[in-house]
């Protein structure tokens, strides 16, 4: 058995897994927030609280992940600096990204009233759900500084190939969220308000722990702090590098928000059932993203040192394990989907509705994994414009027309459109990848 394992796991496999397993474990703890929230609220008497948190959480997915470029852009730039062995560039990138994150967070808090109002208008839930969702959002907005700081800290740690840092900070924070969810909702009866408060407290715990971990990795930070601050032009350059990622991220999250909004228009039961199934989509994306995150670090390092061979090895290794991971998740959802739905909600009408649409979930791991993989490759190589263009194509040219043509199918049409979005992302990014690999343009400055 030992000989077989050594034969199967090449050096590149072991390197990938050294980075991937902590990131995979970290990522899998992220949807625990949603899983626990759903499980706690799903066992209350009314589906209104579950629907309200689904709407509110989607609002903050759009709001916060609109700035998810801070994580992705930081990873790619940090990985390339790591490949060049440029410690000063790594430290400067971290500090400037954190200051930019704090500035953006303060703006979001100042604009909270119109942001929440516009978001709920676009989501257009029922009046009772809207009232509870607004209450949830008014609490969640105060986590903005912690959330955006986490994006930067996690991105930097991944790029510098320190994957256990994100694992420690997020596992600790999610553990706190689980305890607080049970305390605030189950014991104190605060319902959706308790879920929001638990999430805010968990986010600040993660950010504080992340700052402490990074502080330990920067032993010379005091002597060089002033020089690392840089000038306004440095921050503008950082924003310019990430502008394409911002557009791409907004487009993706608007698709998911549109999906939730269309489910809400079909009634509270469909909204709650889709919330349960989308929780499993988070498990898929965050689990398989462990390989994509490892690809970000390895591809960025290869680009930093200018090695085409190392670039190809990183891509092939990540692709192989991403495929295996998607097949494992497919088997899990086919064999255990009904049980998992029952675990998340005891409301029989929501269970029945979710089981009706369960076959769509079976298709998601294999169709979605390739988009996640190429995201990792493109982030590591900082080819963010390609990510923007392929996402816009997939959303505007594929997803929306397919949804419009299948509106008569009801919620089945909505899920079919989501599957076609995943396939369009995979196909368009694969095309760009093959073109760039053939002409070796990954290493050119653009």
Automatic annotation (TrEMBL):
Coiled coil: none
Presence of keyword Ribosomal protein: no
Transmembrane segments annotated in the record for this chain: 21-42, 48-70, 91-116, 136-158, 170-190, 196-215, 245-263, 269-288, 318-340, 360-379, 391-409, 415-435
GO cellular component terms, A-Z: plasma membrane
Subcellular localization(s) per the UniProt record: Membrane
Protein's name in the database: Multidrug resistance protein, MATE family
Family: Belongs to the multi antimicrobial extrusion (MATE) (TC 2.A.66.1) family.
